Amino acid sequence: MLRFMRRIAVYAVLSGALLYGVHRLAMVAVARLLVTVAVTAFAVSPLSQLFVYVIWHWAERDYVAVIDYAMDATGLPERALMVLLLGVFAGYAVVFWVALRQAWDRARPGQALIRS
């Protein structure tokens, strides 16, 4: 009976270690995928940027975890990733501001959104 219990304990520890390793590898792969998709979407289209933004927040909802996973995936230092994340959000703001101005100009020709 004792050998059986030891065997179960060994299997439990090995299974736990295997699951932990698979989980960490999967999170690094997810972080790589998210970083790749985010960079590609930022260059392609504001609508896909919004899609990536929603998925990113739905998937993680935690900037610290996102930065940790991105550190594992890219090897970049934490501060560089924080600056990059702030740059992405500033880029979102610029893109949506430009889109708002263009929509305003199309909707009201001859009236500027901001008078210069």
In this structure, how is the largest beta sheet organized? none
Outline, from the CA principal axes? elongated
By DSSP, the count of extended strands is 0
Q: Which regions are unreliable across 5 or more consecutive residues at pLDDT < 50?
A: none
Span between termini: 87 Å
Determine the structural class based on helices, strands and strand pairing.
Answer: mainly alpha
Instruction: Work out the helix count.
Output: 4
Q: Return the domain count.
A: 1
- Kindly state the percentage of residues in helix: over 70%
Mean pLDDT: 72
Amount of beta strand: under 5%
How is the topology of this model organized?
Blueprint (H helix, E strand, L loop, with lengths): L1 H43 L1 H14 L3 H12 L3 H30 L9
Keywords: Membrane, Transmembrane, Transmembrane helix
Description of the molecule:
It is elongated and about 90 Å long. It has about 120 residues and is an all-alpha fold. It has 4 helices and no strands. About 85% of the residues lie in helices and about 0% in strands. The model has no long low-confidence stretch (mean pLDDT about 70). It has helices spanning about 1-45, 45-60, 65-75, 80-105. The termini are far apart. It has one domain (about 1-105). Helix 1 packs antiparallel against helix 2 and helix 1 packs across helix 3.
What tags apply to this protein structure?
mainly alpha, 85% helix, elongated, 116 residues
Summarize the structure.
The protein has 116 residues and is mostly helical. 85% of the residues lie in helices and 0% in strands.
